[in-house]
Amino acid sequence: MLRTSRLRLFLVCTVLTAAGAGAQTPGQVLVVVNKRVVVSTFIGGYYMQRRAIPAANRCTIDVPDADDISRAFYEASVEAPIGKCLTRGKLTESILYIVTTQGVPLRVLGDGAQQANTAASVDSELTLLYQKLHGATIPLAGTVVNPFYQKRDAPFRHPQFPMYMVTRLAGYETTDLKALVDRALTARNTGKFVIDVRADNNTPGNQWLRAAALLLPKERLILDDSAKVLTGIKEVIGYASWGSNDPDRKQRFLNFQWLPGAIATEFVSTDGRTFKPPPDRWTLGTWKDTASWYFGSPQTMTGDYIHEGASGASGQVDEPYLNFCPRPDFVLPAYFEGRNLAESFYMGIPGLSWMNVVIGDPLMRLQ
What we know:
Structural class: alpha/beta
Distance between the termini: 31 Å
Mean pLDDT: 93
Oligomer: single chain
Number of strands: 15
Strand order of the largest sheet: 10-9-11-12-13-15
Helix content: 25-40%
């Protein structure tokens, strides 16, 4: 087995080589706004202006303001018009990233058949639009292999990787959305990576968290594998944990000081279930106590990390199962070494057409 120092050196060389092989540009981003939702058109325009994204890369859809939509509605009213934006603008190959905005539907409803579920997040479905525009037929049930998964040493480009990386500008308030955009522009490679391992030590998730810690510099790392829940930490640039699936976590907010560019990921089934703000009095609950649920779940929420100050995060709109959550041992080291937010998260997501959402500016990276 490679010694830790040699493994770190290998990752530094390969990831920096891949990241430097061709820096991605604003012209490779398509921004999707919903004309019926004021905040969607606002944040889409604000993001395009701040990132200098060409006006031709704006795609407008016309759908109700709803989290949940049917498969037929998704195909006709979301996927089809976005496909037309790409083909009419001759952008199919040049676009690498699609950014959806608050007010674009969040979840495609399915049959609930566990790991063969036909449900998915809208964003994860859109990752496959590249293949569909090239004539592919995608099975509805379960996941589709993510071609970029674990590709530490490869630059993301077409046609080598037949997919779009899709991220979302989402948050509870307009101020949260603007902060997502603004903080991404001032991200710097400084601060601490915080990894909070659950007290039981035999789960694959704990193994992935500890592996992430081995691939980050010790002087930049705070690692805890006790029953203690880490809170109140200053200058946080990256965070990974079990969220509310850690039985010792009781509080909704961590009270971290998040630096510009900070990202968060956790092993939680429903943290991306909605970006409508909970009541201030709401806190984490239990599955047995339905009175403690918010939007059908008692679990931590991705929106809380954004509201508290994180600049990017992952979430799941419904049960993904642990093996399809983002792998922190790929996400955090890639981000530290210079990959942008989209590439860092998608490097750690095993399957597409599934429950995952990635929040933030896809071009954000530590400099």
